[in-house]
Design a protein that fits this description.
The chain is α/β, with parallel strands linked by helices. It folds into two domains: about 220 residues, FAD/NAD(P)-binding domain (3-Layer(bba) Sandwich), CATH 3.50.50.60; about 110 residues, FAD/NAD(P)-binding domain. The strands form five sheets. A five-stranded parallel β-sheet has the order 6-5-4-10-19, covered by helices on one side. A hairpin with a 5-residue loop joins strand 16 and strand 17. Helix 1 runs parallel beside helix 8 and helix 5 packs across helix 6. It is globular, with a radius of gyration of 22 Å. It binds flavin-adenine dinucleotide. The site of flavin-adenine dinucleotide has 34 residues, from helix 1, helix 2, strand 7 and helix 8.
């Protein structure tokens, strides 16, 4: 059955395309939804799980580095005790409050399977999650992809990468007490995992392609804390190396400059080396993708992809900070509203 915006309650079969369908109810999808509501667009927002599923999957009590006002969307205040940084649980409660206080038309547990443009209209196919109880079709004049990259973490392409001890997710350090752990990556996530493991009594090593901590793109307070733990020999960094093989009890590293190999004892590996969008989904939608970082190619001013009427914002569009991405999301919706106003006139 095709779903659309009902022109009249008494005639349920008469449907028009939505002005906008927003894919993904992360912080940026919610920012866009609030703007669409304010501007009176006919829209829905669809998420394959609940709101902000990526944040749900953060480690418990994970803190944000941004102050609460930088995580706000839709003008809904994010109150927090003075001097506190928001934690995962604060942010989740906040974004739930955004959905409920703004009464956003969010349809949860409904995965967008495909988006195809036929003429001037997008056909959107969805499926109930988690068990595929039903499928639906919608039509829309514009699509905003705010589905992020969280679900497609980059994995190592080396022998042993498929072992159970290798993980792209980190939840809690307790299972790793006294265990030999290697965190792969030189970003903030890798640094935070390595530090959490070390503080909870694991033997914590890092493998970084970077030659020093200073050239890693770390937030200042993360760099400061990590340097202290490295100086105190509580974390053992291996700089300028690549992982070449993993066995149940060891990892092998190779120097990128000399080619020298070393093998370390190892019980668990955490690969924190980034994420990419859902490429089959993008290609199926006809969206051109950059060969460098596999992100959609889009107009940097309008965030419109090569498929006209199909926009992308947030981490899908290389934006790592909600404070910047939310303005982009609102801008996209404002341009769509202007366009819809013009086409209605
Ligand atoms: C540990 C950590 C700390 C961070 N701290 C900060 C910080 O302090 N400040 C800051 O600004 N940023 C921070 N970030 C980054 C921030 O979390 C991301 O920038 C933000 O979550 C990206 O939002 P998004 O809306 O683009 O995507 P996401 O938050 O990833 O949301 C995407 C949504 O789309 C849904 N989805 C995916 N595919 C589909 C589909 N096919 N159909 C329907 N729905 C789908 C998902 O379920 C999800 O709910 C942090 C990130 C991490 C990992």
């Amino acid at each position: 059955m095709k779903h659309g915006y009902n022109t009249s309650v008494s005639n349920e079969n008469t449907t028009l395309p939505y002005d906008l369908i927003i894919v993904g109810a992360g912080p940026l999808g919610l920012a866009a939804a609030c703007a669409a509501q304010t501007l009176g667009l006919k829209f829905i927002i669809l998420d394959k799980a609940g709101a902000c599923q990526s944040l749900v999957e953060f480690a418990p009590r994970q803190s944000f580095y941004s102050p609460p006002e930088d995580l706000e969307v839709g003008g809904v205040p994010f109150p927090l005790a003075a001097d506190d940084k928001p934690r995962r649980e604060d942010a989740l409660a906040y974004y739930r409050a955004v959905v409920t206080s703004r009464r956003l038309p969010l349809q949860t547990w409904e995965r967008v399977l495909s988006v195809h443009k036929v003429g001037e209209i997008f056909e959107v196919k969805t499926r109930q999650e988690p068990d595929g109880a039903w499928e639906r079709e919608y039509s829309a004049r514009n699509i905003l992809l705010a589905s992020g990259v969280w679900d497609q973490p980059v994995t190592l392409n080396v022998p042993g990468a498929e072992l159970h001890k290798v993980s792209t997710r980190y939840v809690d350090p307790t299972p790793y007490l006294w265990k030999d752990c290697l965190t792969v990556g030189g970003g903030n996530s890798a640094a935070e995992v390595a530090m959490a493991l070390c503080r909870a009594g694991a033997k914590s090593r890092m493998a970084l392609i970077e030659e020093s901590l200073e050239v890693c793109n770390l937030r200042p307070f993360v760099l400061r804390e990590l340097k202290i733990l490295v100086d105190e020999k509580k974390i053992e960094p291996h700089f300028g190396v690549e992982v070449t093989a993993i066995t149940p009890t060891e990892v092998s590293l190779r120097s990128r400059s000399t080619g020298a190999e070393e093998t370390l004892p190892n019980d668990f590996v955490f690969t924190m080396i980034g994420a990419v969008p859902d490429l089959p989904f993008l290609r199926d939608a006809g969206i051109a993708v950059s060969p460098e970082d596999h992100r959609p190619i889009y107009d940097p001013e309008t965030f419109e992809t090569n498929v006209s009427g199909l926009y992308t914002v947030g981490s899908m569009a290389r934006n790592q900070h909600i404070v910047n991405g939310r303005g982009n999301a609102v801008g996209v919706v404002e341009r769509i509203a202007a366009k819809m106003g013009a086409s209605a006139a």
